[in-house]
Amino acid sequence: MTVPAPYGGVRAEVPRQLWLVPWVLLGVTALVQSLVPGWVELGFVFAALPPLTGLIYGPWRTAALGAATVGLLMLPVTRPGHIGDADLGAVAAIALFSVLVAWVRGRYGRELTRVGTVAEAAQHAVLPPVADRVGPLACAGLYRAAQVAALVGGDLYDVREGPYGVRALVADVQGHGLAAVGTVASLLGTFREALLDEPELSGVALRLDRRLRIETANAGDGPSELFATAVLLEFPPDMGSVRLASCGHPPVLLLRGGAVRELAAEPAPPLGLGLGPVEPEPLTVRLAEGDVLLGYTDGVTEARDASGAFYPLESRLARRCAGRGWQAGPGALVEFVWEDMTRFARGVEDDVALLALRPERGGGVVRSFR
Questions:
Q1: Are 164 and 234 in contact (CB under 8 A)?
Q2: What is the secondary structure of 152-172 as a DSSP string?
Q3: Does residue 5 fall inside a structural domain?
Q4: Full-model pTM
Q5: Which CATH number belongs to the domain containing residue 208 in this structure?
Q6: Same domain, 301 and 355
């Protein structure tokens, strides 16, 4: 599963109650004007209502309220004494201008919605939501881009089943925001191909490293070098263990019972830097029933509070795991970390990715790729 974003899509619907505001104001103004002495000047309220309506309604409803406003100003009982024929013409002109504004706003609003929908579909194609289950592995992922209105940035994760078991990737590309989306797409494509061909995690890491070097060579006027940190996980069909390979990435956390500990594999250099052979030494860890693994990017641990202190992920997670009655399932885990981190930090200043995995022996069907 992918935890829902805390905000909606591009298009925002106007609440039904807000649609009534201009009409209520018009009715109240007309009633008050009919009851007070003629020297009370409420003409400015009548004149302000069509522009207000144009910010809420489309052109047809704005035109209807503008016509109602002009009509009320023509009636002796609701017409302020200071409103002459010239003033009435000015209000009518304001109403017509409000209709034009509403039309322009609606046109560009529809265009923005269309462009936003296409962008959202393209971004989901690059980083699709992780499935609730991949083979016998229960999964939950969360991604938040630091760049406003972006769904994809420089962090990535993926979980796929292949001939060598279920493999997962969590990585952090240099930079963030829309500029990193092309590199993210290249790395994901390479990972999905390599997991089918490479019998060892070190071979997958070498393929990812080669892809980044090719990206650097083809960058042209772009950045002089591209690099990424990554951690690879491999679960054999029996789900009795996990193998981890790290390329300069933060360690995976293992939640077992009420305890949390780091699974720190011997790291290789980050991908794409060219500092030496990217051949990480895998770490194999036996798994117990109910174990949950959490991969994350440094956007989590580098989040700061108002005093400048970093978010202490491991200690806060250990405190929560020790709490009575809390079940650290994949979905609950990523929700807790995100909510706790955003309460702790001043705001999300970097891309954030979380991937929680729980092996379930006998909980799924292992497909044959032979």
A1: yes
A2: --SEEEEEEEETTEEEEEEEE
A3: no
A4: 0.70
A5: 3.60.40.10
A6: yes
